[in-house]
Structure formats: C-alpha cells, structure tokens
Amino acid sequence: MICPICRCGHTRPGFASVTLERDSTTLLFKNVPAQVCDNCGEEFIDETASTNLLNTAEAAVRDGVQVELRHYAAA
Q1: Domain annotation covers residue 29
Q2: Is the dihedral of CA 31, 32, 34, 40 positive or negative?
Q3: Per the domain annotation, does 5 fall within a domain?
C-alpha cells in the first residue's frame, strides 16, 4: 500500500519496536510484525497484533510490572 504518512513510499512487511506506558508500568516489545514504509520508515501494526499487545500490557499492569522488555509472541 502507499504510505498514508509520506504518500511517496510503499509499505513492506517488517518489524517494529513498540513501547507502552501506563502509570508506573513501561513495556517494550521487540520484533512486532508490521508494515514499514520504505521511504519514511513509518511503522503500521495490524489490529491482531495491537490487540495482543494491549492484552499483554493489561496483564502486566495487573501483575505490578514496572519495566519489562519482551519479544513479541503471537497469541
């Protein structure tokens, strides 16, 4: 698809790092599947991966995690 941000590049399958923060919890997810623009580098994560990240983050907040680095794993 044509990148909706720069409107010049095309997105290609790749990986992204995603940081999520809430209150005193900070989570960094590495190797999240994404579409990445070959021109500007903007990363787009699909709904399935986003839902998985948010569910994992909610569990981490409930468990009292403060800072954590995780490698993405599909549910």
Answers
A1: yes
A2: negative
A3: no
Domain containing 53 equals 11-71
71/6 Cα distance (integer angstroms)? 29
What tokens were used for 68? 């954590």
Whole-prediction pTM: 0.86
Q: Could you tell me the two tokens for 65?
A: 């995690």
Closest CA to 65 of 32, 21, 34: 21
| pLDDT, tens only, 46-70 | 999 999 999 999 999 999 999 999 9
13 three-state secondary structure = strand
How far apart (Å, rounded) are the C-alpha atoms in residues 40 and 56? 29
